[in-house]
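Tutorial handout. Part one gives the primary structure; part two gives the three-dimensional structure as tokens.
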Amino acid sequence: MKTAIIYASSHGTTAKAATLLSEKLTGDVTVIDLKKTKLPEINHYEAIILGGSIHAGMMQRKVTKFIKLNENVLMTKKIGLFLCCMHEGDQAKAQFELAYPDKLRSHSISNSLFGGEFIFGKMNFLEKTIIKKMKGDTVDASTFNEEALSEFVQKFQQNSLTV
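Part two.
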């Protein structure tokens, strides 16, 4: 099965997730960074995994724009959705629901939250100030969950066979 992992990453956590996904998935897998590729052609893929992260309460514009421009084609594919964010529980679920349209979430065969990371060395001054003020953090922090990523892969591949 030809699968595209399409994502945008601000500080590298979503890129890390996309790379790990590509290593764990079977079949022909292509990783596409929306910050480096202008609107990739997706018609020749059977499956699409979309990923992004939350910054200031919103997912990257490149991902939301990609979804809007390709919604009809995406609805004909096997879809997986993931999100990297530092919130957990109900707050993380709410961010996931805000990030992806209901129609796409309902159509997807695998959804997951992979946690997130604050990597202060990759943040600009304003981002560092906001994180310090909101969270009190001044050092790198990670809630990245490789187990959730592995479960996502297992569910995605299992449901790809039955859909």
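Part three, for discussion. The radius of gyration is 15 Å. Residues 146-162 form the longest helix (17 residues).
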